[in-house]
Write a structure and sequence with these properties.
This protein is globular. The longest helix has 17 residues, at 133-149. By secondary structure, the protein is of the alpha/beta class. Helix 1 (104-116) links the parallel strand 8 and strand 9. Strands 10-9-8-11-13-12 form a six-stranded mixed beta sheet, with helices on both faces. Helix 1 crosses helix 8 (288-298). It has ten helices and 13 strands.
C-alpha cells in the first residue's frame, strides 16, 4: 500500500493512504537514505510503502526517492542533520521585525538551503499591522533587499487575516511548507488560511521577545481550497549542510549572476583579485548583510545563527537604503 506521511512524532507516523485513510505507523528496521545520518529517517511529505497488520496499525517498509527536502543541522547533535519536510513545491518563510526579531543571517541560511534543493521560496513579512514607524522602515528596507534579488515578498497580518487571499491563489495545487522562528505566527497563518483547523497559538514572551513552541512536530494538512500545507516547529538557528565551499555562491542568486565576470573561475569572493562580487559590494549593488551571511556559512561560523549581519551596515549604506 502507498501513502504519504502527514505527521511525524519521532517514533510514530501518520500516513494518509491513496483512499484518504489515516494510518498510524511505525518503521521497519533502520532506514538509511543516500548516506544521510538524519535524526529522523522518515519525514513529513515522504511517499512511503506500508503494510497494515491485524490491529489496523501500519509498518513503513520503504521510502520513495525524495524530489527535494529542507534539511538543517540538528541543534544538539552537530554531526547529524534533521530533515524538516520533503517533496515541497513552495516554502513560505515567515519574518517578523521585532516580535520576535528575525535576523538576516537566519533568512539567508534558510534561502541558501531552499536554493540548493530547488525549492521556490517567498518571504512573508508578518504582523505588519503592529509595526512602529522605525520598524516599518526596517521592514521595507529588508523587503527591498530580497525583492531586488528576486524573492517574492508579501506583507501580511495573519492574526487579522490580512493579505492571505493572495497566498491562497499561490498555493492552489501545491504542497507548501511554512517555517520561521517560534512566535512569528506560523500556526496563526494556517488558522487564517483554514479557520476550521483551530491550531494552538501562543503569545510572544515580552521578556525574551522570543516565541514559545506551539507546534511540536511537523504536520501536513489538506486545505479546502485545493492546497496542502506543512506547519513546522519554530527553529532558533539554521545550520546549512551538504554544500561545498566552491558551490556556496551559486545559491546566492545575485552572486551567481556575477560569477562568470570574476577573474578566476574558482573565485570564493574573499581575497581574490578581480572579483566581480567584491566590486559589486563596494558599489553598493549587493547588500552587505548578504555578503556577511555568505562569509559566515563559508567559514563555518556556527555562532552566526542569531547574529544580525545588517544592522550597522544598513545605516551606512545610503545609496542602497534609498
Amino acid at each position: 500500500m502507498i501513502g504519504r506521511v502527514y505527521k511525524s512524532t519521532g517514533s510514530w507516523y501518520s500516513v494518509k493512504t491513496e483512499d484518504g485513510t489515516l494510518v498510524e505507523c511505525r518503521i521497519k528496521g533502520k532506514f538509511r537514505i543516500k548516506g544521510i545520518k538524519s535524526t529522523n529517517p522518515v519525514a513529513v511529505g515522504d511517499e512511503v510503502t506500508l503494510e497494515i497488520d491485524s490491529d489496523g496499525l501500519g509498518v513503513i517498509t520503504a521510502i520513495a526517492p525524495r524530489r527535494n527536502y529542507i534539511i538543517r543541522k540538528s541543534v544538539n547533535l552537530s554531526k547529524q542533520v534533521h530533515i524538516i519536510a520533503s517533496n515541497i513545491d513552495q516554502v513560505f518563510l515567515l519574518v517578523t521585525i521585532g516580535n520576535p526579531p528575525t535576523t538576516t543571517t537566519f533568512i539567508d541560511r534558510f534561502l541558501v538551503t531552499a536554493e540548493a534543493y530547488d525549492i521556490r521560496a517567498a518571504l512573508l513579512f508578518n504582523k505588519i499591522d503592529a509595526l512602529s514607524e522605525e520598524e516599518l522602515d526596517e521592514q521595507l528596507y529588508l523587503q527591498h533587499i530580497y525583492q531586488e534579488i528576486g524573492y517574492p515578498c508579501y506583507r501580511i497580518a495573519a492574526l487579522a487575516g490580512k493579505g492571505t487571499d493572495v497566498l491562497k491563489e499561490l498555493m492552489i495545487g501545491k504542497t507548501v511548507m511554512i517555517s520561521g522562528h517560534s512566535g512569528v505566527g506560523k500556526s496563526t497563518l494556517v488558522n487564517a488560511l483554514e479557520p476550521g483547523l483551530n491550531l494552538r497559538t501562543k503569545e510572544v514572551s515580552e521578556q525574551s521577545k522570543q516565541g514559545q513552541h506551539t507546534t511540536t512536530f511537523a504536520e501536513m494538512y489538506d486545505l479546502s481550497f485545493g492546497a496542502t500545507i506543512i506547519d513546522t516547529p519554530g527553529i532558533k538557528g539554521f545550520g546549512v549542510v551538504e554544500i561545498e565551499p566552491n558551490e556556496l555562491s551559486d545559491y546566492f542568486p545575485e552572486f551567481f549572476k556575477l560569477k562568470d565576470q570574476c577573474k578566476f573561475n574558482n573565485c570564493l569572493h574573499k581575497d581574490e583579485p578581480g572579483c566581480a562580487v567584491k566590486a559589486a559590494l563596494d558599489a553598493d549593488e549587493i547588500a552587505w548583510s548578504r555578503y556577511k551571511s555568505y562569509l559566515q556559512i563559508l567559514e563555518g561560523d556556527e555562532d552566526g545563527y542569531r547574529a544580525d549581519a545588517h544592522q550597522a551596515d544598513r545605516l551606512n549604506s545610503d545609496k542602497l537604503r534609498q
